[in-house]
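Worked problem 6 (solution included).
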Amino acid sequence: AADARVVHEPIGVVAAITPWNVPYMLMTAKIGPALVAGCTIVMKPSPETPLEAYIIAECAEEAGLPPGVVNLVPSDREAADHLMRNPAVDKVAFTGSTAVGRQIAQVCAEQVRRCTLELGGKSAAIMLDDMSDAEAAKILTGAITTLSGQVCAMLSRALVPRHRHDGVAAAIVEEMKRVRIGHSDDPSTQMGPLATRRQLDRVEQYVEIGVSEGAQVLTGGKRPAQPNRGVFFEPTLFVGVTNDMTIAREEIFGPVLCLIPYDGVDDAVRIANDSIYGLNASVLTHDAAAAAAIGRRLRAGMFAQNGLRSDFSLPMGGFKQSGIGREGGEQGLRGYLETKTMLLDAAQ
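Solution. The predicted structure is:
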């Protein structure tokens, strides 16, 4: 052909389905690239947190976007089910649990509909020997109490050298006991409540399961004495954890950290990768070269040296059952475009 070109066109109508944690950020992470790509979007926020989507819709209207470009359907699961199955929808962009992600993937597969799935995780942080107990404890406690542990990329498994286990555990206990639990509008608060009573019940059930399987709660594991109302839960450290236990396999979505000993770096990598998930990972070390080398061996879509870190200008997403596709960066934009190859007889 005299003229061969590859063009990228908008995928079409996007159904954006988001969870109740960080709802504003997760919804805008879908709307931004969809609009840049030239798509229209239907927002389906979680029934627990629809207000952020209303604010986005009001902003779209005030900015003068034409009717039908940014749409809002606040409702329970029925609307999400309808959007997933509606033949007028060209793509589903979902953030949420792996269990729901599997259902969405099945529905989309029936119609070969495009989907982006950003799902759960059981991410590991590997502490190397050059980190002090206090440094590691500060990083790990700071991570597990972020948004009360309700983060899909949470570093909820801490892998430490076996000979350092007890020292690190003691340091984490001291750090966790210093965390100020309180209401979200109090400037002195370091960790607020869980999102719902249902979520509090879920975290408590996982603590019971951990104890029943032989792990020990070294600190936390219960609701705090103060505040004595609301859905608060103490930062919790489990020791005596093996990687086959339920609390090391399943996403708890609360401020619960599992401490797991390892014997050598190869063992640490094996334990970290022994999971159905592969969303995030970290290596705690002052040696950037060592962090990079180990990071390349970890089966996770995101990795950061020294804790829970993110850059929303870069692609985010997971390996394995932590999802399909990426959000953010150039890769995130491409998820809203179809590629077309054109062969023409004459140059245009």
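Discussion: The first strand starts at residue 3 and ends at 10.
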